[in-house]
Design a protein that fits this description.
The chain is built from six helices and eight strands. It is an alpha/beta fold. Strand 1, helix 1 (6-10) and strand 2 form a beta-alpha-beta unit. Helix 4 packs across helix 5. It binds zinc ion. Zinc ion is lined by residues 136, 138-139, 141, 152, 154-155, 157.
């Protein structure tokens, strides 16, 4: 069972390739803002691959107490605390071992304290690299994939985005 932080989506994690039950908290939806990561998150939720769940206050309080003990409380925002609380809830109520996927050191530190496993996004073993191509369907000009506008400066047409190539990156956890 995986519990996904906003950093996992921003870091390129794609739940579609992960053969686990996957969860996140509603607050993560507000933190994922880049177009690609947001798209991956939306599709994952709509397809039921990622379930959105809120932990009860009792778990939030336990996380706050432990984070205060480790000195990490000031580094965690409300979303981080909810995410840790959700992992704790799943672990206790369903008696399973969830793994938090996050690149945030404070989250990792408190997770360790709560005896919840975690993995940085790069070591999750499921990362997809997509190279986009941005082009104008009218005048056929191409633009860099990070070009910020969506209107062709040459002819005023609306730019389209398509996948130039896609590669699955598998990394082994080596610690
Ligand atoms: Zn054009």
């Amino acid at each position: 069972m995986l519990v996904l932080d906003a950093s996992s989506f921003i870091g390129g994690f794609n739940p579609q390739f992960a053969d686990f039950e996957q969860y996140t908290v509603p607050e993560v939806l507000d933190e994922v803002k880049t177009r690609r990561a947001k798209f991956v998150l939306d599709v994952s939720i709509l397809s039921g691959k990622v379930k959105v769940l809120s932990p009860e206050d009792e778990y939030v309080e336990i996380v706050k107490r432990e984070a205060r003990n480790t000195g990490d409380l000031w580094k965690l925002d409300a979303t981080d605390i909810k995410l840790l609380a959700l992992a704790l809830k799943l672990k206790r109520e369903r008696n399973v071992e969830p793994i938090i996927v996050s690149d945030d050191y404070a989250i990792q530190n408190v997770a360790r304290r709560l005896s919840v496993d975690f993995t940085p996004v790069a070591y999750s073993g499921i990362k997809e690299e997509i190279q986009w191509r941005l082009y104008c369907p009218f005048c056929k000009r191409q633009y860099p994939s990070d070009y910020s506008g969506n209107i062709c400066p040459e002819c005023g047409g609306e730019l389209k985005r398509k996948v130039a190539w896609k590669k699955r990156i598998n990394k082994q956890k080596d610690d």
